[in-house]
Specification:
The chain is built from five helices and seven strands. The protein is of the alpha+beta class. It has two domains: about 40-145, Electron Transport, Fmn-binding Protein, Chain A (Pnp Oxidase, Chain A); about 155-195. Strand 5 and strand 6 form a beta hairpin. The radius of gyration is 30 Å and the shape is elongated.
Length: about 210
């Protein structure tokens, strides 16, 4: 049974009513008909998506109640899994407005939005963030809930690394096939040479047999 914690956090009364009117209540709203299951547990699927991510959008809440969105990026693996439902990433220097850090000091709720453009997958994460000062300032996230979103509206995009890896895969496949064909040609050449050493074979007229 699917964990319903995300649904309890995301769906308010108006959302539920609109689901009823538009026929999607059975797929979504019915999850609220049983008590909240509590925090989701990150599985291998979510961790693989997060580990491969080179970018995500980070949402926090301002003291005036407005949503605030930032873009974060880095090499694959820059969002680290510390075990369980805990993630952490480096808070790289920006424009020194410190809006995200200020928001987390008054409201630790946050959202992370990951998109895998080539595979048309996206993952929404709800969590609570804390700031850790040190040699490098980092933001630690305790994941509360997550949801895999519909891929219909994602426009595929391919970065240079993805295209390089894809090209190498095709090159390796072509090289392996070339090796197979070369081996087959050599086998046929050896067979032809063997037959030539036996001398010419005289064809028999139809209906006759050797004596």
């Amino acid at each position: 049974m699917i964990n319903n914690h995300y649904h309890h956090l995301a769906f308010g009364p108006d959302a539920i009513e609109r689901q009823r009117v538009n026929g999607s209540y059975v797929a979504y709203g019915t999850h609220l008909e049983r008590p909240d299951d509590g925090p989701d547990e990150l599985s291998a699927r979510e961790l693989r998506m997060i580990a491969d991510a080179t970018q995500f959008c980070l949402g926090t809440v301002t003291p005036t109640g407005w949503p605030y969105l930032q873009y974060r990026s880095g090499p694959a693996g820059f969002v680290r899994h510390l075990g369980g439902n805990t993630l952490r990433f480096v808070d790289l220097p920006g424009n020194n407005q410190f809006v995200t850090l200020g928001n987390l000091s008054t409201d630790d709720r946050l959202a992370m939005f990951f998109v895998d453009y080539p595979r048309k997958q996206r993952l929404k994460v709800f969590g609570r963030g804390s700031v850790h000062e040190g040699e490098r300032r980092e933001i630690e996230v305790g994941v509360e809930a997550f949801d895999w979103n519909c891929s219909r509206s994602i426009i595929p995009r391919y970065d240079q690394q993805y295209l390089s890896e894809l090209g190498k895969a095709y090159q390796d496949k072509a090289a392996a096939r070339e090796a197979e064909l070369t081996a087959e040609i050599e086998r046929l050449r050896a067979r032809v040479a063997e037959l030539e050493q036996r001398g010419p074979v005289t064809a028999l007229a139809p209906g006759r047999t050797r004596t």
